[in-house]
Specification:
One of its GO terms (biological process) is methylation. Keywords: Methyltransferase, Transferase. This is Methyltransferase domain-containing protein. Residues 67-158 form the Methyltransferase domain. The structure is a single chain. The protein is an alpha/beta fold. The chain has a single domain (51-188, 207-242), classed as Rossmann fold, CATH 3.40.50.150. It has six helices and twelve strands. The strands form two sheets. The protein has a seven-stranded mixed sheet with strand order 5-4-3-6-7-12-11, sandwiched between helices. It is globular and about 45 Å long. It starts with 9 loop residues before the first helix and ends with a strand.
Length: 244
């Protein structure tokens, strides 16, 4: 188990409490530096295929070959892919999330931070990053680093399927003009903490990359970029493949 796994584990304890029936209403409180506190029911991590947003269902349909599910949570995507016959490895930094996935029947699970995920012989045909999963990279600097790191994980001809969103709407004034601190960090770099009952997890960075900045970074790192779909919340699904 890597020593850098964050502790305490508010997310993991909420998922375990919900899964074990100890707290059927288990709810996380999500704190950020850009918005009001938000309630996130643990049940959301357990949704079935038809409870998933359309972008996630499309991403599952686009998966190919051996799949690495990054930031897998309670394993809803991994379980759906398993049911379709895919070989899936599900990874999360939360010890409790990993225990939840094991209890739910995800066959291959590991506890790793994103940049500690080991390469596998032959590589993965699909890296899957859902629920605004591109955010795992943390910052634009992390995105740049991840696009290099992903080459060590991908099989020849492999793909990254990821969702992200443009959160510029959070910075609109009353006239609809955008108000940014141009000297500050990129507006899509958000700081979060999550709490469950009396436990608050470690702070972490999460990236919301607008489509144009993602395209710039990915193309500079040698990827082909294909935007597959977008929803009304300005969230999009993108496919990244290495240029041959």
């Amino acid at each position: 188990m890597p020593h850098s796994v964050p502790s305490p584990d508010a997310l993991g304890h909420a998922l375990l409490a919900y899964h074990r029936g100890l707290d059927p209403a288990a709810t996380l409180t999500v704190h950020s530096n850009v918005a009001e506190d938000e309630a996130l029911p643990a049940s959301y991590f357990f949704r079935s295929l038809w409870e998933m947003p359309e972008l996630e269902r499309l991403a599952l349909d686009e998966c190919q070959g051996r799949v690495l599910d990054l930031g897998a949570g309670a394993g809803c995507h991994a379980l759906e892919l398993q049911s379709r016959g895919f070989l899936v490895k599900a990874v999360d930094v939360s010890v409790g999330a990993v225990q939840t996935m094991q209890a739910r029947g995800v066959r291959e699970v590991a506890c790793h931070e994103l940049f500690a995920v080991p390469a596998e012989a032959g590589g993965y045909d699909t890296l899957l990053m859902l629920m605004n999963g591109l955010g795992l990279v943390g910052t634009l600097e992390g995105l740049e680093r991840f696009l290099v790191f992903a080459r060590t994980l991908l099989a020849p001809g492999g793909q990254i399927l990821a969702t992200s969103s443009d959160i510029s709407y959070l910075y609109e004034d009353e006239e609809g003009a955008l108000v940014f601190d141009l000297n500050g960090p990129y507006y899509g770099e958000v700081e979060y903490t999550m709490s469950y009952q009396s436990e608050t997890g470690a702070a972490f960075s999460w990236l919301f990359a607008d489509a144009s900045i993602l395209q710039d970074y990915a193309e500079a790192a040698g990827y082909e970029v294909e935007f597959l779909a977008e929803d009304e919340q300005q969230q999009y699904l993108v496919r990244l493949t290495l240029r041959s």
